[in-house]
Amino acid sequence: MKIIPYILIIVFGLFTGCNVNSYTFDENLAFQSLEKQAKWVHRYPGGEDAPICRQFLRESLEPYCDKYIEQDFTETVKGKELELKNIIGIINPKADKYIILASHYDNRPFSDKEKTIGLRQKPCPGANDGASSSALLLETAKVLKAKKPKVGVIIALFDGEDYGKDDDSMYIGSRYFAKHINDICEKKKVTFGILLDMIGDKDLNIFIEQISNKTAPKLVEKVWDCAKGLGYGDSFIPKVKYGIYDDHISLIEEGIDCIDIIDFDYKYWHTSHDTSDKCSPQSLKIVADVIIEFLYSDIE
Ligand SMILES: [Zn+2]
Fold first, then answer.
1. Interhelix angle for 27-39 vs 50-61, to 10°?
2. Rounded to the nearest whole angstrom, what is the distance from the C-alpha of residue 5 to the centroid of ligand 1?
3. How far is the CA of 162 from the centre of ligand 1 (A)?
């Protein structure tokens, strides 16, 4: 063993630009978080796992934010009164402008895309659809806490995205969030939002989503350029493919530009086979690297 002289550590630090306060995204920790959430297969609104999942999200997010908010509300869906909770963390709450990073955390209470009729009543574990993007954002909060971006960041974990089969029983949490945005921050200070959904697939192919491209083409271009610059052009494919109704529509309808980063080429979507083994830590890292790099860039 040899002790490196202190002066060499300082010089090395200067040349490498190393920052003692920095924390790099740990894809293995993020993946553990994904696995944990995916095991709570009844974490949908009203499900028996919802309280423990919400508690886990709180414990994972609150210590890494400057401000933590829970939005509790009830909604009657198909005659059933549901208690819902959006989980929100803010970094730099006094900033002049904000960016929203969002994901839904609930899973689907049934697996309606199953070929086998008998499996359709089982909940969709949502390892990719719900847990992957939530896990990514929880780990990203730690990075942002260690090295603050210039802008304010609102990390929003929505409830009730995947509850039902029609629009009234879906996107419930994001709709509430968007309508009550002034409870979180002044709406005019929100520059835009980035929604993440289904970003954990081992075979990551993120095409440009149609509505995102129509609403905020420059933002789309910047994010996909950022991915290319990091060498992730094979995963962030600069071609428009699907048009998807997702939580970003709730924000767009309230006048907030929002893009959806989603890999919709996923054959386990809304089946009981959407489990952790279909996802990978590396996919979480690719998307997180892009988001984090983008947040530290000069955002207009
Ligand atoms: Zn879904």
1. 160
2. 54
3. 5
Would you state the CATH architecture of domain 6-296? 3-Layer(aba) Sandwich (3.40)
Is it the case that residue 122 has pLDDT exceeding 80?
A: yes
The closest alpha carbon to 77, from 156, 180, 157, 167, belongs to: 167
Alpha carbon of residue 269 to chain centroid: 17
Q: DSSP letters along 1-15, please?
A: --PPPHHHHHHHHHH
In this prediction the pTM is 0.93
Pairwise CA distance, residues 11 & 190, whole Å: 40
What is the 269 CA–ligand 1 centroid distance (Å)?
A: 7
For residue 270, the CA-to-ligand 1 centroid distance in Å is 6
Structure confidence by residue, pLDDT tens digits, 94-113: 999 999 999 999 999 999 99
Q: How much distance in Å is there from the Cα of 254 to the middle of ligand 1?
A: 22
DSSP character for 188? G
Query: What separation in Å is there between the alpha carbon of 149 and the centre of ligand 1?
Result: 31
246 C-alpha vs ligand 1 centroid, how far in Å? 9
What angle in degrees, to the nearest 10, is found between the helix axes of 133-146 and 281-296?
A: 40
Query: Domain-by-domain residue ranges, the chain?
Result: 6-296
How many angstroms separate the alpha carbon of residue 129 from the centre of ligand 1? 5
